[in-house]
Amino acid sequence: MERGKFRFASNRLGVMASFYPWIIDIKGNPERVAFTLHRLTGVILVGFIALHIVSTNTPARAGWEAWVEEVQRLSGVNLVSILFFIAMGALVFHSLNGIRLLLVELLALGIGRPEKPKPPYIPPSLKGYQRTLIYVVFILSLVIWALMGYVIFLM
Amino acid sequence: MKAGTIALIQYVTAILMILLVSWHVADRIPWLHGVENLPSTMSPEIIYDEVERFWPLLILLSIAVVIHGVNGLRGMLLEWAGSNERLRFAVNILSILAIIALLLVAIHTIVGLPELG
Amino acid sequence: MVFDLKAATRTPPKVVKVRVRRYNPETGSSWWQEYEVETYRGMTVLDALLRVKAERDHSLVFRYSCRMGVCGSCGLVVNRRPRLACQTQIAEVASEGRPVVELEPLYNFRVLRDLVTDFTEFFGKHRAVKPYIMRRDVREREEPTLEYSQTLDELAEYYEYSLCISCGLCDAACPVYASDPNFLGPQALTQAYRYVADTRDELWEERLRFLDVEGSIFKCHFAASCSAVCPKMVDPAGAIQRLRSTLLKYKIRLYRKTRIAKVVPPMEKREPPKPLPPEATLVEGVDLKLIEEEKPVIPVEKLLTT
Questions:
Q1: Pick among 2.60.40.1930, 1.20.1300.10, 1.10.600.10, 3.40.190.10: CATH of A28-154
Q2: Could you report the per-residue pLDDT of B1-34, keeping only the tens digit for each?
Q3: What angle do CA A63, A67, A71 make, to 5 degrees?
Q4: CATH architecture of B3-111
Q5: Chain A residues lying within 8 Å of B42, measured CB to CB
Q6: Domain assignments of chain B as residue spans, ordered by start
């Protein structure tokens, strides 16, 4: 950026700010972690959905025998089933956090009422029940993910 | 299209997906089908039966999923593209193409499902 | 921002290292410089910077004005968190275990020199959302003859958002603003909602329609970092969610502003004068009735011109 003989530096954090929450100090801001995970799992899921749509096309493309062979690749612990397991974890978190985001973004619920500032100065949107929901989402998705892991790997 | 309309589509597909995806995933629970592991829930008989009975739901699910997913990715790519008009145009066109291509494959999966046996 | 209310009562470490990320626009070079500063109880980061400038290095450049969290000019990044330098106690950010205060210019802004950032883009975006009351009757707004009526409940709807001091901390913390230069940013969007929620604003539809474009409000994904760093508890994150909800409801014809404030004459009702206590005696020559009837004469024109 030139102006006369001076050069001014851009101080933008760039795309990393969306994928690495600790690029700034986020004490007291778990929403940021949820936001980052929502993005990350979203990207994972787009890849998974593309693969999923192509792979479920197998019966129509190559017949049922090829489909049975394809499904068998999911049994046991191997690269395909591990990737599938990761995609399922992404799916669970993305859906549960998505419900929370629908409440907050679409209906503006869970973010308190506007209020006059008074000590200790916690903004209403960080005191609303969406904050509780974050922890519910984190714990519930871990539990469901573990159950899915049991179904995928141990049965 | 206006950004608000796209956002509305994004939210509506999200609500649809919460219902449809949970059904779609729950249908893979082994105990419901009385079989002992995950791959067995995807045997040709079960899949054929499911597609026969619920094909409208499956098509709706694929439409919602593809639009929601590609549009979400498009949003992130547009952030990265910044104010580069050519790049933005390319991202938009590629998103539409990706939606159409994936939907064609999904519909082919259901329409072109071979008979059992 | 959640304030450490007791921080000013604690004693900070005796000597802290103030590390400053400096920038020289003439050579385009950027480097970290370290100063050791002796502290005292109640010392703020701005005090430390002023001491460095007075005693160590007069070439250090930073911006400040009011020194008490009102003007919003001294925003900078302290230990990777956007803060107002004048409102941040050294004791809050440095401890005996880690007596280091790292100072950087605000993220996502253009750096002019050292800690001074360029707010042209920021105020441009603020201006773009038309942050003023819009009425059909422009003449009445510009040269008011009467008052707009508003209840206390209606005031409470937007009062919090009107406390913004435009310090830019929210934009510095926003992850979307960091990657997308077209995004309006939390500050501008909050101000947009402040006027949409204001009952005195008549042309709210115009503002909503302006916001219904790519890269404005729908880029926000509720990371809520803006609310977490706001030094005035303005709560941009909450405002943006309400604005988005309003806009989406408006798009599917579910939202109408229920009440637009009308102009009303000022309140005329006066309380009856209290009777004098029986023991009071009047100064000779004063007529109580005359004082009640006579209006005080204040030369308003004279007051305005001087």
A1: 1.20.1300.10
A2: 778 889 999 999 999 999 999 999 988 888 888 8
A3: 175
A4: Up-down Bundle (1.20)
A5: 67, 71, 74
A6: 3-111
Domain ranges of chain A: 28-154
Q: Do A60 and B80 touch (CB under 8 A)?
A: no
Most confident segment among A3-17, A63-77, C53-67, C130-144: C53-67
Reply yes or no on whether the pLDDT at A2 is more than 60: no
Partner-chain contact B114 A71, CB within 8 Å? no
Q: Which of A42, A56, A75 sits opposite B39 (nearest CB)?
A: A75
pLDDT tens for C39-90 read: 999 999 999 999 999 999 999 999 999 999 899 999 999 999 999 999 999 9
Q: What is the 3-state secondary structure (H, E, C) of C244-273?
A: HHHHHHHHCCCCCCCCCCCEECCCCCCCCC
* Residue A71, H or E segment: helix A64-72
C contact test, residue of A2, A29, A103, A130 with most C CBs within 10 A: A29
Residues counted in chain B = 117
**What DSSP line would sit under A9-40, residue for residue?**
EE---TTHHHH-GGGS--TT-HHHHHHHHHHH
Query: What mean pLDDT comes out for the span C157-185?
Result: 91
Chain A residues in contact with C225 (beta carbon < 8 A): 24, 26, 29, 31-32
Residue C37 clears pLDDT 90, i.e. is over it: yes
Q: Which of residues 67-96 of C touch A (CB under 8 A)?
A: 77, 79-82
